[in-house]
Amino acid sequence: MSKYTSLSDIQAALKDGSTTMVDVVQSYLQRIKETNHLNIYVEVYEEEAFAKAKELDRKLEKDPSCVGGLFGAVASIKDVLCYKDHKLTAASNILGSFTSQFTATAVQRLLDEDVIIIGRTNCDEFAMGSTNEHTRYGPTLNGLDESRVPGGSSGAAAVSVERDTCLIGVGSDTGGSVRQPAAFCGIYGMKPTYGRISRYGLIAYGSSFDQIGLLTKDVDTLSRALTVMSGPDPMDATCLSIEAPAIASADQASKYKIAYIPEVLNHPGLKPEIKKGCEEVIENLKEQGHGCEAIDFDLLSYLVPTYYVLTTAEASSNLSRYDGIRYGLRADDVEDLEELYERSRSEGFGTEVKRRIMMGTFVLSVGYFDAYFTKAQQVRTLIIQRLTEVFSKFDFIVMPTTTDIAWPIGEMIKDPVSMYLADVYTVLANLGGYPAISIPKSSEGLDMPFGIQVMSDKCTEAQLLSFAKQLSIS
Question: Which of 46, 222, 256, 325 has CB atoms 3.0–4.6 Å from 395's, for a disulfide?
């Protein structure tokens, strides 16, 4: 395991000469080789990473004041983020061996601050899944227990951090795809406010839900990376024109008003040990002087249906561009255009993606549009109104990240509906566009970690991260 788990530690070691960027990169590449059987990376940029490390070492030696704010950080990027002149497939056969012609804004902002990108990580195809099994590259294994999934769709990004193959994992979160694998792998995972980080260069799944997120082993590193990646972008009209969040500090003196939802803690699918762990967190917060209060949230049972109606509808539209003509897989020996479309998409997309495209096409069809899509939009509005009311009175909502610990490999393949229902706690933040973070926790009764999820009002990431750091210390 790496002896450096935070950016501050790495930067201190670089500045006092006890290590070099070449040594740091060499250490990570060695870990990648040792964990190759986990199937974390679909491509490793070994030569490129070494060349960049040598360049940064020279830069530091010449003028330490010229290095970027994230100098020392090595990151992995999920295989849904564009990186110029590098392959990009979204773990799907439909994209074949596509090479990106530009770099995602979020990735470029990391590069501008001297982050080294060490490789692209495996994921569920087009970010559709909760297990990292729905991929052309084969499943990624959980580094803590290789018989279990790492979560998804950013499961490999989480394992890349947990197994110390990099410092920062850059993923995407449409309904919990950063926070859920963070919980399953025992690390931090954050989805910021919708629009906080530009989506330019992120392959679209559900455009009104998708948000780039971060996975790390400590809050400080996450906070510093988020600050760099945030900010307006003329290439993304949905990006917020607000200042980047401040770097978090654990303010033990601040006392907050915290809400929790009894219906969540009494959910029939919630594992008893996770319920107990969440209740202990709430009791500890009360003892520390925070105001913790139970609130009613009678829309809980509508969260998952609303989420899947809307995201599959958006996926059906977004994925219509993959037609076998413009780029990617094109079927051979076809007789007409209709057969070209049919065979290219049938051969290119995997089972889960096909399932969601079919669901989305159905809810958008003329006979069912009002009954499903319009109704789901109305329920989404009610959910946002309810959350607005809650955050007018409270600073945070605390709940478990997931109903269970990491599942055995293959379990959810047989029962996709159970996989969808397991997103009940994470989709809430995406439906409203609110920031949320998963904080790693453990229990004597469990052999795997779980997560405590904290949500806050929009654009309050600095306060959320400060509270997360405080909660981690306590």
Answer: 256
Taking residues 272-287, report their average pLDDT: 96
Q: Residue 381 — very low, low, confident or very high, per pLDDT cuts 50/70/90?
A: very high
For residue 136, the domain's CATH number is: 3.90.1300.10
Beta-strand pair 116-121/74-78: parallel
Assess contact for 395 and 418: CB atoms under 8 A: no
> What radius of gyration do the chain's Cα atoms show?
22
pLDDT at 474: 63
Q: What is the mean pLDDT of the chain?
A: 95
Residue 121 is part of which domain span? 1-474
How much is the pLDDT for 72? Answer: 98
Query: Which amino acid, one-letter code, is at 233?
Result: D
User: How many Å apart are CA 52 and CA 26, to the nearest integer?
Assistant: 12
- In this structure, the strands spanning 436-441 and 188-191 are antiparallel
Q: What pairs with residue 110 in β-bridges?
A: none
DSSP H stretches of helix in 6-104: 7-15, 21-34, 46-62
Q: CA–CA separation, 324 vs 258, rounded Å? A: 51
pLDDT the model gives residue 1: 52
Confidence tier at 251 by pLDDT (50, 70, 90) = low
| pLDDT, tens digit, 9 for 90 and up, residues 416-442 | 888 998 899 999 999 999 999 999 999
Q: Do residues 313 and 360 make contact, with C-beta atoms less than 8 angstroms apart?
A: yes
Active-site residues, by number, are 78, 153, 177
Q: Is the peptide bond before 172 cis (omega within 30 degrees of 0)?
A: no
Contact 319, 126 (CB under 8 A): yes
Closest CA to 345 of 323, 312, 325: 323
Helices (H) and strands (E) in the chain, counts: 16, 11
Mean pLDDT of 201-207: 98
Task: Compute CA 290 distance to the chain's CA centroid, rounded to the nearest angstrom.
Answer: 29
Give the residue among 42, 24, 70, 80 at the shortest CA–CA distance from 203: 80
Length of the chain: 474
The CA-atom distances, in angstroms, between 232 and each of 105, 107, 173, 237 are 10, 14, 19, 9
Q: How far is CA 357 from CA 24, 312, 322, in A?
A: 43, 6, 12
Q: Which secondary-structure segment (H or E) carries 274? A: helix 272-287
Packing angle of the helix pair 21-34, 46-62 (nearest 10 deg) = 160
Number of domains in the chain: 1
Q: Which residues contact 309 (CB under 8 A, 6 or more apart)?
A: 359, 363, 372, 373, 375, 376
**Taking a C-beta distance cutoff of 8 angstroms, is the pair 171, 212 a contact?**
yes
Q: Which residues pair with 78 in a beta bridge?
A: 121
CA atoms of 270 and 287, how far apart (whole Å) = 25
**Distance between CA atoms of residues 408 and 401, nearest Å:** 18
What is the rounded distance in angstroms from the CA atom of residue 237 to the CA atom of residue 199?
9
